[in-house]
């Protein structure tokens, strides 16, 4: 690299040349020319393949392709074959040799050209050219004049085009390099994608910048407003609602009885700046004051609790280019799921997203475009964060973050970046923010060991015990006593937890309980909002759709499905994890107390009282509705609890169910729903709910074993059941052909079994113990006058540890008269040394069929496991086997229905009825566990003509070990002596 090299900017550490100073993103009535649309495009393979004269206005580009701006060029052509390069996914590793600031000379470079017309009357002599996002470095020519170059993929870059722009035809040429020195600062855990991926425009230049400072004093109820305006001429401020009209923006104006802005009541005051030149700029002003008080994170004088998510920008077809509709979808889905906070991991989002956060109400941790994680494997050797040569680049990114987004009331915290080690450049960035904007707090998790330059103590993926210790202020001291005193005075934030990869996460309610128990704990952000799967299709004659993850584009270094770790599937369908999170973080907690004949309502809101909610009750007898109505709950203030006696109608409904009911379980449910439409959900949308068992089921009479088991022709007959006399397998029940059941302990490994970011994954011990290759050895099949006993042993080759199992079959006089019910009691006895938990403990059987109707009474409607079961409620549900599969991007164990009392599975040939004693877990799928485990993508799963049933006594918890702790001790499934029972009968 030398100074004469016109491409030297690609590798030098400079953040750019020729750019305008950063400023706020704002709307204005001055004319703007949108340059989004089709541009001419050519992808050069590297710096040796550039088009010499491509920036010349008369260069003939008609043979070039057309590519949409904004877009990521690697996404072009999807879901078919990518047309330009291919997406590549790594979490930590750089996808090129680490030799900062050098990047490969084989550096895919997009050459973009666009002609546009500047209409008469457009103030071409005072205009800026604005790029909202270009990944990763670029240089710009307008009408053959080089304007400059820039880095910082997800921050805005503007150039003054006053001299180069002219009325009529203009030609813009932009060269975008996939790799640059900036790539070393942009090692976020996501797909590597390139191009002009956010909008481009030319805007008339008027007011340069402004900074709205609007604070709220909770002791007086007063708001103070001052707007610092930078403009070539003067400007006046109007906020009609506040009685400010054509006034000096600098104020300050002290306004009595202002309504503050919060996530729950995002009160925005409409205002306007009008410059002397006549430019009008709309303002949306939110008054709020962020402060740490006695170690507690407060806004407007009240503590806040972050029920958050980490959000990357992603769409399965367009990558990091999002439409506003997609942003709206994200914000509404968050609000609808009780989420109140978002960390813009790990870069500033499209600025329109922050407008939506202001409008609908979300606390925002706005994060800088910074991550140097790929230096960690070499112990942070040569990490840019501590190298003076990179200081300017750090400060530039930080300034571009703060300046662009400083006018958003939703932004309460600036986050320097993610996973970039520690160092002087980060400290300098924090110091710069402090002098520029003292109205927000500074976050950076990487500084957790000292917290020397941050205002929040932040960690990722710690377990609940450590969290509780921090909540109590009992964390281990830092090396330096001064830092220690500082850190102990800080509120704590879990900037990432609850790794939502694959099935899970488990254990969220444990975190939430700890968070709510300690004022110092300001809550946290689940990792992460959305799976970044890429929409693809197979090349079959009849192409099948699937979502690609790391490795699917032939990357030589990649991190597989670690990119699919969100609460939403790539198409933004909520996963069971999101439904669980919604319940765990509900801001109103209802408790149904049948013994005391009371309900209580506890309000966990920041400022909102419960008056925006309607409460309703309903009673179901074995899942059949027997009564419902409205419930009057006095308005409950934030922090308060209200207790309500059951109204007479509830008591009457319960009495009726008790006297004339089914004799089964009677559940009383209470839900809290929106009284009126909110901006983010319609009236009737449910916010919180609870259930209580009001009448316990009448105790079932133990069915008396009645029938003898008779052996004949290689079979054993027991009532309606026929067994194979040698294998002891149940082969027929009534008219239904069956296979099994057999003791089964294996699950299709979930991501939380297969991976462990901090240690040995669970799968290692399981494979060592041979749990995936257990052999079922039948020792005896013994019919007698009361039933049939099958004795077997489950063990792996080479191992002496085994599970002894006795299947005791009998026929009882169940209510399903006629044939009677076939009863199975399984007695499992571990033998030998068992040091590993069991993945599951239950029986597996199958019946013929490709799909089936499933009806059950138990927990539902969704998937649930022992440590992710807050979102399911007791009721009667109907679904189909196909609909009961949860489509995790990488197939794995899924779809369990928890604590099922009764189920009916109806295929084309008949109905199998199951009864738990008292409950059983039910997983039903059209393929085997082995097929599920072998599948890499959803389209690999093809039904095998049988319905596979798993009836489990228990499952091992899910946890979130793929990046975090495994299941807590109470959710570990140990191999211990166990007896469980289930009954079968048939219909039709
Ligand atoms: C942590 C990262 O901050 C985040 O970007 C993401 O990679 C997440 O983990 C896992 O999905 S880093 C982790 C290795 C502790």
Automatic annotation (TrEMBL):
GO terms for molecular function: beta-galactosidase activity; carbohydrate binding. It comes from the Bacteria. The keyword Hydrolase applies. Keywords: Glycosidase, Hydrolase. GO terms for cellular component: beta-galactosidase complex. PROSITE patterns: GLYCOSYL_HYDROL_F2_1, GLYCOSYL_HYDROL_F2_2. InterPro entries: B-gal_small/dom_5, Bact_Beta-galactosidase, Beta-gal/glucu_dom_sf, Gal_mutarotase_sf_dom, Galactose-bd-like_sf, GH, GH-type_carb-bd, Glyco_hydro_2. This is Beta-galactosidase. It comes from Streptomyces davaonensis (strain DSM 101723 / JCM 4913 / KCC S-0913 / 768).
């Amino acid at each position: 690299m030398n100074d004469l090299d016109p491409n030297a900017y690609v590798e030098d550490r400079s953040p750019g040349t020729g750019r305008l100073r950063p400023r706020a993103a704002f709307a204005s009535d001055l004319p703007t020319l949108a340059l989004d649309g089709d541009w001419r495009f050519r992808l050069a393979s590297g710096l040796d393949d550039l088009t010499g004269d491509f920036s010349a206005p008369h260069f003939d580009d008609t043979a070039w392709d057309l590519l949409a701006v904004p877009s990521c060029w690697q996404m072009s052509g999807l879901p078919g074959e990518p047309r330009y390069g291919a997406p590549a996914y790594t979490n930590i590793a750089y996808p090129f040799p680490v030799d900062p600031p050098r990047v490969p000379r084989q550096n895919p470079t997009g050459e973009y050209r666009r002609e546009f017309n500047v209409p008469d009357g457009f103030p071409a002599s005072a205009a800026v050219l604005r790029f909202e996002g270009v990944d990763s470095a670029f240089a710009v020519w307008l009408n053959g004049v080089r304007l400059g170059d820039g880095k910082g993929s997800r921050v805005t870059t503007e150039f003054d085009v006053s001299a180069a722009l002219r009325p009529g035809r203009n030609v813009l040429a932009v060269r975008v390099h996939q790799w640059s020195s900036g790539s070393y600062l942009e090692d976020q855990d996501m797909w590597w994608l390139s191009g002009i991926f956010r909008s481009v425009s030319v805007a008339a230049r008027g007011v340069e910048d402004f900074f709205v400072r609007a604070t709220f004093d909770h002791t007086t109820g007063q708001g103070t407003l001052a707007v610092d305006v930078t403009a070539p001429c003067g400007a006046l401020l109007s906020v009609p609602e506040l009685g400010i009209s054509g006034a000096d923006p600098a104020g300050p104006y002290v306004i009595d009885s202002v309504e503050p802005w919060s996530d729950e009541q995002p009160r925005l005051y409409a205002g306007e700046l009008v410059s002397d030149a006549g430019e009008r700029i709309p303002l949306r002003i939110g008054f709020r004051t962020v402060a740490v008080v006695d170690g507690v994170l407060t806004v407007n004088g009240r503590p806040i609790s972050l029920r958050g998510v980490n959000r990357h920008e992603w769409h399965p077809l367009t990558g990091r280019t999002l439409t506003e509709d997609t942003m709206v979808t994200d914000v509404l889905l968050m609000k609808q799921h009780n989420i109140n906070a978002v960390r813009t991991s790990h870069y500033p989002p499209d600025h329109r997203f922050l407008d939506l956060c202001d409008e609908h109400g979300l606390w925002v941790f706005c994060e800088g475009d910074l991550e140097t994680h790929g230096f960690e494997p070499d112990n942070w050797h040569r990490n840019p964060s501590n190298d003076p040569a990179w200081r300017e680049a750090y400060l530039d990114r930080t300034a571009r973050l703060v300046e662009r987004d400083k006018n958003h009331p939703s932004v309460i915290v600036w986050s320097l970046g993610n996973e970039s080690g520690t160092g002087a450049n980060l400290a300098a960035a924090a110091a710069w923010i402090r002098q520029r904007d003292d109205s927000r707090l500074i976050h950076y998790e990487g500084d957790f060991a000292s917290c020397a330059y941050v205002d929040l103590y932040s960690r990722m993926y710690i377990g609940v015990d450590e969290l509780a210790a921090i909540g109590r202020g009992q964390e281990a001291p830092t090396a330096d006593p001064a830092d220690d005193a500082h850190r102990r005075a800080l509120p704590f934030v879990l900037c990432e937890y609850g790794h939502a990869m694959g099935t899970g996460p488990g254990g969220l309610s444990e975190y939430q309980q700890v968070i709510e128990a300690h004022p110092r704990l300001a809550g946290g952000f689940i990792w992460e909002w959305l799976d970044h799967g890429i929409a693809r299709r197979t090349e079959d004659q009849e192409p099948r759709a699937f979502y690609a993850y790391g490795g699917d584009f032939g990357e030589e270094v990649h991190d597989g499905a670690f990119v699919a770790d969100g609460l939403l599937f790539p198409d933004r369908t909520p996963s069971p994890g999101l439904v669980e999170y919604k319940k765990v973080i509900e801001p109103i907690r209802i408790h149904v107390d049948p013994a005391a004949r009371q309900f209580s309502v506890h309000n966990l809101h920041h400022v909102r009282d419960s008056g925006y909610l309607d409460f309703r009750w309903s009673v179901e007898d074995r899942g059949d509705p027997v009564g419902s109505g409205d419930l009057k709950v006095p308005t409950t203030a934030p922090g308060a609890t209200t207790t309500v006696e059951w109204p007479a109608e509830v008591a009457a409904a319960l009495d009726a169910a008790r006297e004339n009911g089914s004799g089964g379980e009677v559940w009383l449910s209470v839900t809290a729903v929106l009284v009126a439409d909110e901006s983010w959900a319609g009236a009737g949308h449910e916010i919180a709910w609870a259930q209580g068992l009001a009448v316990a089921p009448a105790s079932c009479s133990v069915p008396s074993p009645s029938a003898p088991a008779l052996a004949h022709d290689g079979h054993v007959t027991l009532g309606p059941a026929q067994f194979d006399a040698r294998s002891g397998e149940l082969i027929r029940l009534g008219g239904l052909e069956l296979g099994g059941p057999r003791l089964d302990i294996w699950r299709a490994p979930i991501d939380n079994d297969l991976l462990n970011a901090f240690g040995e994954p669970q799968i290692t011990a399981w494979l060592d113990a041979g749990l995936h290759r257990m052999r079922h050895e039948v020792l005896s099949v013994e019919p007698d006058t009361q039933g049939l006993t099958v004795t077997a042993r489950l063990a792996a080759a080479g191992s002496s540890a085994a599970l002894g199992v006795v299947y005791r079959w009998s026929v009882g006089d169940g209510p399903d008269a006629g044939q009677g019910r076939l009863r199975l009691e399984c007695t499992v006895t571990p033998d030998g040394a068992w040091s590993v938990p069991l993945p599951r403990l239950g029986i597996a059987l199958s019946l013929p069929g490709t799909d089936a109707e499933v009806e059950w009474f138990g927990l539902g409607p969704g998937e649930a496991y022992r440590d992710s079961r807050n979102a399911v409620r007791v009721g009667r549900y109907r679904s189909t086997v196909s609909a009961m599969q949860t489509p995790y991007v990488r197939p794995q164990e899924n779809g369990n229905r928890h604590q099922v009392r009764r189920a009916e599975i109806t295929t084309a040939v008949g109905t199998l009825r199951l009864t738990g004693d008292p409950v059983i877990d039910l997983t039903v799928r059209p393929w085997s566990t082995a097929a599920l485990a072998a599948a890499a993508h959803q389209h690999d799963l093809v039904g095998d003509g049988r319905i596979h049933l798993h009836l489990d006594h228990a499952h091992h918890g899910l946890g979130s070990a793929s990046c975090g702790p495994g299941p807590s001790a109470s959710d570990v499934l140990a191999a211990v002596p166990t007896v469980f029972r289930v009954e079968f009968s048939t219909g039709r």
